Amino acid sequence: MNILIVDDEREIADLVEEIVKKEGYSSAKFYDPEDALEYALKHGEKIDLAIIDIMMPGIDGLSLCGKIREKYFFPIILLTAKSEDDDKITGLSAGCDDYITKPFSPPVLVARIRAQIRRYREYPIKKENIDGVTDINGLVINRLSHTCFLDDKEISLTPTEFSILWLLCEQEGNVVSSEEIFENVWKEDYLDSNNTVMVHIRHLREKLGDNPRKPRFIKTVWGVGYKIER
Question: Which of 72, 110, 139, 165: disulfide with 44, CB 3.0–4.6 Å?
């Protein structure tokens, strides 16, 4: 497993590199975001996950994330010294899959890395659904090939977005609460104040061209959760 590490604070970047190497991962470390972007665009198919700091000179972490997302969809974890919800929402909307607020503990970082890589690498070969394909109102999702098509046009989704959409399609017609979505996708305990699911749902709707007031796909059941139905 190869992890891209980008942070202009050398001590943080070196610490993250040390942590991932102790877990047996290889890494490509950059203090300069522009060098990291050049590497990512050239070698993205060899990257399994990226850990990117938000506050950097030149290309900040959000811009770097957005540029990577134009071509690749490996998981991205953002590092931020800020704890405000707006910063987290901005990061999730930019296409990242998770965030960690600095300072962080090594066990927490390792747990987040493992969860993201497991979801990205392993779930396409799970056997819960042999066909691994759903087709709802022109939205075709193939779990085995990790592809999503809307009216025969491919839609690019991050691993987290794909996992949420697959879960909703798998539970077609049933309401799935934010808590269920979070605990199934992130594999962590849900907090009432957590708006991570809401941000990802909004991002999914944007990609699907889904009007939340008159949705074709993802419907909100106020106070309960979300559902997809024919």
Answer: 72
